[in-house]
Structure formats: structure tokens, C-alpha cells
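User: Batch of two.

Assistant: Item 1 of 2:
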Amino acid sequence: MIGTRALADFYESFDSGVGALHHTWNSDNIQTGGGQLTLEGDSGAMQRPSGADAGNGYGYYEVTANMSADVQGPAVLLWPGNDVWPGPEIDIVEVINGTPYGTLHWNNNGSDAYTSVFFNGVDETQTHTYGVEWSPGKVEWFVDGQSQGAITDRVPEDYAHGGMNETLSVMNRGWEGGWLTVQNVSYTSHDYGW
């Protein structure tokens, strides 16, 4: 079987610091080493959001991570390429009330609106592989290769189809003192024209 790394258009293992996620904030709260990235306090790292074509478009995004239990703040997400929020944002994994979930956000006349898919029975303190498939008209979430659900309403278009790309981001808001450890992130483009 060919691994994710061999197939990916973008792969970051954090063997050399933050690597491709070089747009950071509060770097004193970011530790790297041993092939992983750990965020504590209010900190984050992402691909640079420099315009509608920044980051990546339709495809499969994957992260191997674990995070603090029952604490809001740690998240792995796809942030709008133009760095304007509220906007099209796809959360690969976050936690609320002890349950990890994925969310699709959109701009609703200047306010944030969203729909979520909950990953019931998943222990976010254990290392899992979280994935999201972003395709025309559909966003579907996966944990360890198993579908957790999909959303087909208000799915944004990527840059190649008249919308905006997304930048990979890992962050810990630090609201409740949580943490996030990420072993790798990847993106694999797909041709949805077939």
C-alpha cells in the first residue's frame, strides 16, 4: 500500500521545526522536536494566508494529532486563503464538551454561521488521524479512515472554481490552558472532473 506521504501534494512532518507552517504567532508557546509540533497557551502555525489563491483547493486533508481532553481551544483547520473572517473555514477537528467535531463555517451577512459534525466515541487525548475531503458541493470528515459524516449545504468553491483556497492551520487558543500535539499534516489534490 502506498502511504499518504508518497501520494500527497503537500506533506509536513515537523522534522525541521514548523516547516511549511511558517506563519506563526506566540512562538514561545510552540515546541518542535522528535517529528512533532506542540502548541500550548495562545499559539498557532499555518501556511501563509496571502490571497484567494493561497494554500490549497479541493482535495483530501489529513492530520495525525492528539489534544487535551474536555478543553476548548485546540484546533486543526483550513483557514480562508485571504485571511478574512468570517469566511469559508473548514475545521478538521476541534473539541467542545469533551467531544471532538468538524465544522463548516461561512459568512452570513457579516456574521459567522456554521454547521458541525460530531465524532462521537472518539477520545481526542489519544493519537488519531483526522481527515476531511473537500469536494464540489460536499465536505466529509474522517477519523482513522472511518467517515463521521458530511455536509452538502453552503460548501465553498475553491480558487480554481471561482472561490477561495484554504490554508492549513494548527492552533491552540489557550482559553482553558489546553494543548495540541501534531505529528504531521498533508494535502492531496483530487481531480473531481472524472
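Item 2 of 2:
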Amino acid sequence: MVRPRGIALRSVELDTLVDGLTFVFVLGAFIPLSAVIKPWGPFKRRRIGGVVALLAFIAGGMLIQMPPERPAAIAQAEWDRRIALCREHAAGQFRDCVRDTAELKKAEQQADEDKRAKLAEERAAAAAKSPEAKIGPSVLKPYTKKDDPDIFAAWGPKGVQRIEDLRKTAAYGVAKQDKCDAVDLVEIADQRSKAPSRITIYVQCHNEARYFLTQAEIGRGVFLSEDDRDEAVKAVPFRNACSEGTQSMLRYPSSYNQHIFGSGTFTDDDGNHGITVDFDAQNGFGNKIPQVAQCTLMPDGKIKIRIHNR
């Protein structure tokens, strides 16, 4: 629906009036405020000057927080987002922030800085907590034949004892990590474990940080979350190692031609994270063959590379 021109003009005039009154009240408040130092004219008493100045500041502050009229080109949802963002992060520039792109960007940057600062404080507070305090009393409740017959049937008493030892070590190891605010769950990961020897422990934190830890990783004291693993395979060092390792496996390494946009990430059946890289390379007949390398970050920190044609 098209807004009548008269209404649009009145909205602009109202915004201009509010801006003008805000300026008058805020700056005008300093006139009676000067009477607090030395009474003069109508402000023969310091108290009168202080009260008038206070009322002017209050009126100006109320006007500063009054949202301007929403332009027709901006959707209501976006306008509401701007108002909420600018109220919290634009200080005294609220009205300018809502309307001005540059001021809005400043508010968005401030919001990001505040968010990072808050996250840093939360992590510092979590790190200050002892591991014992971050593990709930029932988290390490032992498995029993009565409640967990399948586990005992698959692993036997000695296997279950190994699992219990790994659960405890994993819980305390994860509790020491800044990214985990509190340990909520520590269980054997059935789908990633296989009797009699391959054990993987699953740990979940209250802030939803998740860990799948193999027996070897727990033994080495390596406690990487799923986010950690995902970030590791996306990082430049891993990508460079993937490219270099792939080249070394080719018959003609110098013919390696990596595609800039032909890459992605994956998680294999064992929960290991990795990346795929598309490339062309020359075969024994001198032809360029389109291929793909799958580089997987293994629990021992090594890279497993598989190459196949696309």
C-alpha cells in the first residue's frame, strides 16, 4: 500500500521536530545548570537552576530514545532489529544509528565486541572452576549388569572396567577445557566402539560442546571437541598438508592442478573429520584426469589421504 504523500511529509517533519527539540533540551539544560555555580536572572536560587537543568536533561533523554519514523523501503523486521541493536549499543546516538548506515555499522561492531568480551568472561569463569565442580554427581554413575546388560554382554566385566576408567579420565580431561562449561554426559559411543578393544567415549557439555574421544586420544591427553576438529581441517596448515601429501602420491607431482572452488568437508563413519579437494593431474598416457583427494584427520594427528577419479 502506498503511503499518502501528506502523511510521509508529516513523518519527516515530526522526526525533524524531535531532533530539534532534543538538541534544544540537551544543550539548553546547560543554561540553568550554570546557575548552580552562580545564581542569575530567573534562577536566583541554585536549587531552581539544578531542578530545571535536570528536567531538561530528562526530556532530552526521552526524546533521544524515541524511534524515528520507519522508511517504507525498510522492512518492519529489519527496523525492529535496528531499534533493538541501537538502543543497546549506540549510546546517545540512538536516532542517528537507526537511520544512518555508518552509525549502524558502528553499533554492529560494538555488539560483536561486547559478545566476544562476554564469551571471554564466560570462558575465564569456566576455566576458573575446578574440574570436579564442572562434573555433575550422577554423570559418572557406573554401569551395572542390571541396568546395562548389553554393555556387559558385549564387553565382559574387564572390558566394562576399562570403559569406566576411560569415562572418568575423559570427563576430567574435558572438564579442564575452556570450551566446556560443565560436563552433563559421559558414555561409551556404541556406534564408534567395537568389542573387545576399540573404545570411544562420548562427552557432552551443558553448553552443547561435544567430544568423541578414542582410547588412544584419552591416553595421550588429547581432548578435541567436534568444533575443534572441524576448525582444524578447515585451517590453512591442514589444507596445505593435504595438497602436499596428495602431490607426493601422484606419478607426476608437477602436473597437480588444484581447483580453487572444488573442496568441501566431511565426517567419516568413525567420526573423523576431513576435507575433499578437487584437482586435475596427468596420468601415464599424458592425459589430464579429473580427480578428488579425501584428506582425513586421524585420532593420532596424522593425515590419511585417498585419491579417486571424479
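Strands lie at 183-188, 200-205, 210-214, 257-267, 273-282, 288-297, 303-309.
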